[in-house]
């Protein structure tokens, strides 16, 4: 059985290893996606703090005038007085992110001047996102990446099974010891075993979260059978001829409902859709920092419901946690760094494993000659 698992481990790694490596490297980069997005806007003109800020609605009008062919999708609430307001615009009727031509418009909150743009569907960061999530191929690519996620699970299980030295602590510690003074092959093998055994559990977990996103339509009914059905979004009844609430009214309603929270992102529904607006917020010591949401009526700005991650029903808490589990954002800086390192480990394992396999193949003819 162990010999069969060793062969399975070897050939999955050789055939699909490079693909898994690229997914790991792009995943490591996307752990710090927010920092990369901020880096992309490092050259924006500085915001000069003044005594009087313009209303959000006036700022949104400036952003809309700069992109008249697009509609406002959401805005990010600035965390400091010297930050611009970011308005994210998309093309009406877009079917997916790739066709949405999504762009962020940055507006000075004191004079209403547009100071810069960031296009979401261009550049290296977009390339990494599109490859990591969908292999440049939309839904089809998402399904193919599910194959890579399944392969990573099999690699982790087979590798642990082949390595497992038994339940004695001394045996485990000895098998993980790096033999730096040994020959090249022994040193490389020790590094491969230590990295694989040390990170396989985490890599399997990350791969399972990725696999969930690939099979979500089939997985959700099963999960909901076990954990219960999620609540629907609050019902919204629109008044005929009614005007949408101003952004300032929506923000004020969220602040009143959540005076101690840090408001992060306001999302607006499509016009006449009959759906609520939502405000994402963070609270201290929360397991999933941005797993909290307040639902708002898009016309009256009435607070319809407040969802705190810790109080959500189990099935909703699971769904809200899945992305945070995949990218390691649930525990703060240390879990993000650990997930970042885990994304680099497949490169180490693939290089070391392939090198060992090539050395073994080159040595095989010599062994046959010596035996003859």
| Alpha-beta classification | alpha+beta
Q: Tell me the count of domains.
A: 3
Report the total helices: 11
Task: Spell out the helices and strands N to C.
Answer: HHHEEEEHHHHHHEEEEHH
- Compute the gyration radius: what is it? 25 Å
Taken as a percent bin, the fraction of beta residues is 5-15%
Low-confidence stretches: none
What would you say this structure looks like, in words?
The chain is an alpha+beta fold and 372 residues long. It folds into three domains: 1-47 and 126-229 and 334-372; 50-109, no CATH class; 247-312. The chain has helices spanning 2-31, 33-40, 56-66, 123-134, 138-163, 169-175, 184-214, 216-227, 247-257, 314-327, 333-371; strands at 71-76, 85-90, 103-107, 114-119, 262-267, 277-282, 292-296, 303-307. It has an eight-stranded antiparallel beta sheet with strand order 4-3-2-1-5-6-7-8, with helices on one face. Strand 7 and strand 8 (303-307) form a beta hairpin. The radius of gyration is 25 Å and the shape is elongated. The model has no long low-confidence stretch (mean pLDDT 90).
